[in-house]
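re: the backbone from monday

yeah here it is again, tokenized this time
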């Protein structure tokens, strides 16, 4: 995310980019005034940039290149102080419900397996009784 800094153009020295200690021939030299427009709240920021744009906008009677951005410091919750309530308790409750449902399913499968084992033992005992020789009384 890029944070835009708005400085009035009349307060920026014209030689600000030439007086900085920057490496030669690697930085762009086509800085010009550009308007950045926040699409969330339609605020505009006029600053210098090298960004290539096709759209233009008239601001105070002067036409500038326009770049539309989705979020800036004027609409970002961190800068505006808006708090977004995250439903943490709801998430915890959903997790606990899933865990309880999973435990209930495991218990049900365990109980079913025990019943099946008991039935099988009972059936095996009955078969063993039938196949065993009968004793005379």
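seq for it, each position gets an aa:
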């Amino acid at each position: 995310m890029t944070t835009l800094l708005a400085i009035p153009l009349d307060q920026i020295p014209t030689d600000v980019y030439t007086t900085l200690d920057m490496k030669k021939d690697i930085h762009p030299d086509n800085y010009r005034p550009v308007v950045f427009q926040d699409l969330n709240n339609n605020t505009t920021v006029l600053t210098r940039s090298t960004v290539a744009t096709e759209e233009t906008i008239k601001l105070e009677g002067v036409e500038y290149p326009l770049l539309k951005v989705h979020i800036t410091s004027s609409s970002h919750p961190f800068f505006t102080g808006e708090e977004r309530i995250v439903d943490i308790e709801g998430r915890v409750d959903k997790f606990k419900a899933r865990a309880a449902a999973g435990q209930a399913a495991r218990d049900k499968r365990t109980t079913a397996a025990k019943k099946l084992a008991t039935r099988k033992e009972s059936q095996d005992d009955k078969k063993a009784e039938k196949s065993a020789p009968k004793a005379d009384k």
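The longest strand covers residues 62-69. Residues 85-130 form one domain.
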